[in-house]
Amino acid sequence: MASFTRRSIGFSRKEQYSKFTAWVVAILGAAIGVTLLVLSWTREDRFESARGAAGDVVRPVAVAGAGGRSTSQNLFGEIEAYFQAGSKNRRLEKDLATARVRLAELQAVETENRRLKELLNLYEDDREPIVSARLIGSTSSSTRRFATMSAGSSQGVERGMPVRSERGLIGRVLETGRNTARVLLVTDRQSTVPVRRAEDGLTAFAEGESDGTVRIKLIDLTINPLKPGDIFVTSGSGGYYSPNIPVAVVIELLSDGAMAQVLSNPAATEFVTVDPVFDPEASAELE
């Protein structure tokens, strides 16, 4: 046990000497540093060469560090520019897609306006209508398509007279009562209306399909020049209908013509006008 105690004391003295030496060196180093600092402030010319030599020694490291910083800055700048360019490209693509949609909408509006102008210019008959009346009923579940209006023989309505709304042709009077009349709609299977394409006068027949549509049957079957959106109007042939009353617009092409949607839907029509027969003599021959 005594031997262990002596060894512990010896180790403690050695540790104390080491700590004392470290403190002495630290104090001397601090004193020398302070002395050199004071001298560098008061006698700058004495340390000019030393500072220059030290600068020369550390120059390669400083240049390398500066180059690294510059390279890293350029690299980070390029990376940032890359991601910013990608973000700008996505924004430009989105703006372009929006512009295309707006352009399509404007083109659709322009087309619709042009079509409406064509429709407004179609009515050229200066003759006064016989009477204006209200549609008070129409068939929708039957295979036949009729409507009833609130005007008859007492108001001057006669069999065969065309019936139309502000949008186009509804049909023609089939039977008359004193204050009501039965109208054969253009969509009935027994209805055939001579028509022409509004833009160039291409002739055809509009035959009712009893489902709200009409079948456009071309007279010349060698080629089908129709396209969706074509507007057909009455041609004036047959004697019943005056020319240029809107009838239907093409919605689907067929081998011998097209399917078309009537422009004046009786179900959405409240008031109609009754026109005089366009050519009584020609219509009488068809009876």
From TrEMBL:
Gene3D superfamilies, alphabetically? Rod shape-determining protein MreC, domain 1, Rod shape-determining protein MreC, domain 2
One GO term describing the cellular component: plasma membrane
Key word Membrane present: yes
Listed under GO biological process in this entry are: regulation of cell shape
Q: Carries keyword Coiled coil? A: yes
Coiled coil segments of this chain: 89-126
Q: Which residues form the Rod shape-determining protein MreC beta-barrel core domain?
A: 136-267
Q: Which residues cross the membrane?
A: 20-41
Print the keywords alphabetically.
Cell shape, Coiled coil, Membrane, Transmembrane, Transmembrane helix
Q: Into which family does the record put it?
A: Belongs to the MreC family.
Q: What does this protein do?
A: Involved in formation and maintenance of cell shape.
User: Could you tell me what this protein is called?
Assistant: Cell shape-determining protein MreC
**Source taxonomy:** Bacteria, Pseudomonadati, Pseudomonadota, Alphaproteobacteria, Sphingomonadales
